[in-house]
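Can anyone check this?
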Amino acid sequence: MDCDVLLLTEVSERVDLPAHDLHLGCLQMMPKRRWAAVASRLPMRPLPDPHGASAMAEIEGIRFCSSILPWRSCGTRDLWVGANTAEKTNTAVVALEAAAPEVWGGDWNHALSGREWTGSIAGRTSILEAVDRLRLHVPTASSPHQIDALLSIDHIAVPTTWVMGDAQRYRAFDSGTRISDHDAYVVEVHPRRVG
């Protein structure tokens, strides 16, 4: 993957990405691992985390945010506020929307259509409504999950005014061994207005 910006989740504090600066979110999800990060080959200005499981940075005047959103078995850590997955997702999404990311991605733990296996239908609705209000488009919405017959729960949302190519999936294998339970998704974009 030849990317100027990477939106990362479940990031080891020891990760080394040659030619990229790395901004890690503040909270650890476990020792030596952060919830999210933004990496860039371009000059980057770190911004406050809009939510504990997110990281945000400004790159060339554009706010990029990487997030993990709640899933059915995420538990009751202080990070997640609400009585169920839908409430926890909505609370996180409200905080993220208030930060107004212009590019927002990560492990959203929700397919954006079809049957919902990881998140909740009400959580999906919260996400889609925020995406709409932020005037974003999610090219990964119909991308396949690493499990056959499911849709991705990992997403990248970009402004509707940008010119973009198709979302590409990169399987998370190294020498035939799966290295993550998530695949990587890449969207080529040109941040200029259509027309």
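Reply from J.R.: I decoded it. The mean pLDDT is 86.
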